Structure formats: C-alpha cells, structure tokens
Amino acid sequence: MELSDKELKVAALENGTVIDHIPSEQLFKVVSLLHLDRIDKNITIGNNLCSKKIGKKGIIKIADTYFKEDELNKIAILAPNAKINIIKNYAVISKQTVSLPDELRDIIRCANPKCITNNEPMPTVFDVIDKEHIVVKCRYCEQAIAKEEIKLK
Amino acid sequence: MRRNESLVSITDYSKEEILEVLETAKLFEKNPNRRVLDGKVIATLFFEPSTRTRLSFETAVNRLGGRIIGFSDASTTSSTKGETLKDTIIMVSNYVDLIIMRHYLDGAARYASEVSPKPIINAGDGSNQHPSQTMLDLYSIYKTQGTLENLNITMVGDLKYGRTVHSLLMAMSHFHPTFHFVAPDELKMPEEYKIYCDKLGIAYTEHHDFTEEIINQADILYMTRVQRERFTDLMEYEKVKNIYTLRNAMLENSKPNLRILHPLPRVNEIAYDVDNNPKAYYFEQAKNGLYARQAIICKVLGIKIND
Ligand SMILES: [Zn+2]
Q1: ipTM greater than 0.85, yes or no?
Q2: pTM here?
Q3: Chain A contact for B90, CB < 8 A?
Q4: Pairing with A113, which of B84, B91, B129, B285 sits 20 to 30 Å away (CA)?
C-alpha cells in the first residue's frame, strides 16, 4: 500500500528536520550519506510518493535532530532539489534548499581506477567546478567526474 | 593549496614564476656547473622506471654538487611489500632536503606533497602531470623565439591523451598564443581545454588534415606520437597513421623562425630527413631539460642564481 504525502504528514513531527523532494532512487543513499543509521531518534522514511515536480519522491523525517548546514549541503550531489524544513513545536520555522559546497571532502569515490585515492588509504577531495550541472574534479588525479558517474565512498 | 614549495603541476606556477625559472635556466645554460647544492642530499624515487627523466634529473643534481639517494624501479623497494606511499615518503623525507619522484598512479605527487615535510618535484605521475617536461618545452620556445608572447603554436598528433600538449597549452595560456590543433577525430583536443581557451579569449583552430598551409603560419610545431593502442578501431589507425608524419619537403615554405619540437622518443611521426633541417629542434630540446631541471630544483629549494 502506498502512503500519500498527506498521510505521511499525519505522523507529525514535534521537533526535528524534514528532508523532502528526494528523488526516490537516491533516498537510501541520502540515508547513508547523513549516517542516519547511527542516530537513535525517531526516523520516518517514506519513498515512492507521488510528486508533481520530480515524479517519484522520498521524504525523511528525523525527530529531535538538527544538522549543520554543510552536512546537509552534501546531499545536493544526490538530491539537488531537496527541501529542508526545520520543525519546532509542530511548526515549520524555516524552509531551506541545499546547494553544493565548493569542496567535497571524503564523500565520493574517484572514478579513475589509477587514481592514488583508490590505491592508498586516504580521504578523497573533490573541487566542485560546475554547480549547475554537478561536475566535480578530483584534486589528486585532476580528472573531472560528471553527475551520472558520481559514486559515494 | 600548496603546503610547501613543491612543484606538482605547471599550474602551481604563476606567469612570473615561470619566467623566473626560465631566466635561471638561461644562466645554467651559460654555466651548468655551480655547487649550490653542496652538503645537500636529494632523493630520486622512481616507483616507475623512466631512464631518460631520471638521468636528466640526476645529472642536474650532480652538476649542482648535491648527493643522490633513491631507487630507479619500485620492484626493489618496500612498496612491493605493501608499504603505503605516505610511509615511504615520510621515511625518505627524514633523510633528504628534496624528493624528486615519478609514480605510476595519477595524483601520487600531489598526495606526496601534502604528507611530506620536504618539497616534492613531480617527475611524472601516471598519465597526469609532468611539469619539468613542460618547463623544458617552454624554455625551448623562449630560447628559439626570444619571447613567449603572441606565438603561433601548432600541435599535431595525439591531442587527446598527450599530457605534454595539455600542460603546454595551460602554461602558454599566460602569453597570448594562437593555437592550431591538428589531430584525427579519435584523438582531438578534449572539450575541457577548448572551454579553457574560450574562457581566456585564446584563439584556436582545429584541423583534421596536416597541410603545408598550416605549417607555413607556425612559429612552433609541436609533434606528438600517434599510438596504435589509442585506437578502438584499427582501420581508423591504419587510415591516419601516416597523415600526421612530418617530412622535410613539407617545410619548404615555413617561417624562418619555425622550430619543430617533440617530447621524444619519436617513432614515425617525424621522418628522418627532417633531422638535418636547422628547424629541427627536438634533440636540443631534450638537452634543455638539464637546464630547466636545474632551475626548477633551485626554485623549489629557494636558491637564487644571480649571474
Ligand atoms: Zn582521482
């Protein structure tokens, strides 16, 4: 049975963060990117909900948890149109969008098998060279990776 | 981004720094024997063998009076026992004043420069960067043309995978060049370098055929190897392999100041009858590598050469 957006809202949040408009196929990657598996608060995840804007979408509600801005901005590589709602006392006190940071530290893997980062225990660093089309460049092997080729670490 | 004075990529240097190194190289050409590295120990770590580059660097150090430790082949080192690059670099940096390294992995030199307390000179990291080659190319151009400004640089052959042409393009972009790119479709200059030129307002023209008309406008003809293994379609290779060969007869109406460069080794992209043409410069170009590398070593170690 598919939950509608309305029904999901019934499980209203008293305090916490709602991440909405995540493309369905990216939902579980967003979960792992934000390390939600390590949070012991109430988490509600809805997926394959209908969205006029992006087709099928996912939504995540995390109770009693607020993220740093750069933490949330990381998800822009997966869900550039995600909407963040900050909830306090059952009310949305702020709505935010995400935007890619200039630098992605140890989040994604280099697509080049001959890159040092794939052969040495070390963090990856990517510079975001095109925020609009999501193109990133490895600081080590200097190869650019387009959105479709991006793989999380 | 640079933590120390390392040279990993030619783009680490500004226009002024490039010109400073070229001026120093000029002084080393006048007198290559200067004992400015007296008492210093330099490591040459070649995780991938490259006799040509290693001999050039080691000659540079020897003529500067420095001592050398190192290895010329990774199979003789502990990295084959699974030691990380980081550990090898930190261990060696305890002993020496400078590390010159070549590695088979892309980005190895950048990483080494981040973990090493001593400066690194990149002598080639995989298919990524080889800045001392670029510096000797620049020195060859500077010396033969008397300037780097406003030159017609014509690049021929494998413009897709040839890292020397990409680095040369980036370095020359400081000096208002006009580029001509001559390559088969499969080996065309990658889009990102054309976008780079567009952004800086640098004029370039792409050509499929290698004609005398193109040669006759050039100040520098930069030839590269068209390698068989780069082609997915061998029919295509058979079709183009001889189109990009330079023959002496093609130089008849070229400019008097034209010089022909090639990073060497060549296979068949320059016919042997070109060798005796005074415009053939590739052997001197290789010799310029010594002076360029001496100048880079001094720049990295902060040693000033004044006359
Ligand atoms: Zn890489």
Answers
A1: yes
A2: 0.87
A3: no
A4: B91
